[in-house]
């Protein structure tokens, strides 16, 4: 088949990305992460036919609409997994979303309740104590006086720490953080034992800006590093506009 015929039945990466409002870099990123199968090439240029475009659309549905991480989306869209395997991945992600939706609905209901407060200072609200007992760990301590309850909570934590296993038991398969009932706060409460968690020892490695750059919240692709100024949130103007439209529609709903 001649090159002219191939070109007439396919498009370059810019056109393929534009069809779904994506940046070409997003399509390349999805290919590098296994979400998309790399297309045929002609003269070093990617050529996308009908099947390739359909696969990009499926990737958009999973990554953008379905909010799936790239590794999960790859199991669905790459065409390499059996039906039962990728269906299981979809089911697991759906269960995760349902848990998150439940948490968000609970947050919404509480914030709606909070709007009913008539006090200028929320700390003076007469209903606050009941809310603390119902929605925070303060409810584990039944003493009505907050100062007394705070002392009791700290003392209970110390008693649990004294019952923690020794070093040999921890090395047997459990980490020190798992055994410390105070969790990550233990470091903050004992500054003399070593540097705080967010501090780097002198001469220690520090993560580069690229290593800490979050993926694009819309397409989950890489976000190019800004040459100057604040770090970018979205990888392209198209992703930023889509996110804006979704927020605008949600605000009108």
From TrEMBL:
Region (Disordered): 136-253
InterPro entries: DNA-bd_dom_put_sf, MerR-type_HTH_dom, MerR_fam
Keyword Cell membrane: no
Any matching Pfam family: MerR_1
Domain (HTH merR-type): residue spans on this chain: 13-56
Record carries keyword Transcription: yes
SUPFAM superfamilies, alphabetized: Putative DNA-binding domain (SSF46955)
Biased composition (Basic residues): 239-253
Comp. bias intervals (Basic and acidic residues): 153-212
Recorded superkingdom: Bacteria
Alphabetized UniProt keyword annotations: DNA-binding, Repressor, Transcription, Transcription regulation
A GO molecular function held by the record: DNA-binding transcription factor activity
The protein's name in its UniProt record: HTH merR-type domain-containing protein
Species this protein is from: Streptomyces silvensis
Top-level taxonomy: Bacteria, Bacillati, Actinomycetota, Actinomycetes, Kitasatosporales
């Amino acid at each position: 088949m001649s090159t002219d015929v191939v070109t007439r039945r396919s498009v370059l990466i810019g056109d393929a990305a534009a069809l779904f409002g994506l940046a070409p870099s997003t399509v390349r990123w999805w290919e590098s992460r296994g979400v998309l199968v790399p297309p045929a090439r002609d003269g070093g240029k990617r050529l996308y036919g009908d099947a390739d475009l359909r696969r990009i659309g499926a990737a958009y549905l999973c990554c953008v609409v379905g909010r799936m991480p790239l590794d999960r989306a790859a199991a669905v869209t790459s065409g390499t997994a059996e039906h039962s395997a990728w269906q299981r991945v979809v089911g697991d992600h759906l269960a995760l979303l349902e848990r998150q939706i439940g948490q968000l609905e609970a947050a919404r209901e509480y914030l709606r309740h909070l709007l009913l407060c008539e006090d200028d200072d929320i700390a003076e609200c007469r209903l606050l104590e009941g809310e603390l007992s119902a929605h925070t760990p303060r409810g584990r301590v039944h003493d009505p006086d907050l100062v007394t309850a705070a002392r009791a909570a700290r003392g209970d934590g110390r008693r649990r720490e004294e019952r923690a296993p020794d070093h040999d038991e921890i090395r047997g398969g459990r980490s020190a953080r798992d055994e410390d009932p105070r969790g990550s706060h233990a470091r903050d409460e004992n500054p003399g034992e070593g540097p705080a968690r967010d501090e780097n020892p002198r001469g220690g490695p520090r993560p580069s800006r690229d290593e800490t750059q979050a993926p694009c919240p819309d397409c989950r692709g890489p976000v190019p590093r800004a040459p100057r100024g604040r770090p970018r949130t979205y990888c392209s103007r198209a992703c930023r506009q889509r996110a804006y439209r979704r927020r605008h529609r949600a605000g009108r709903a």
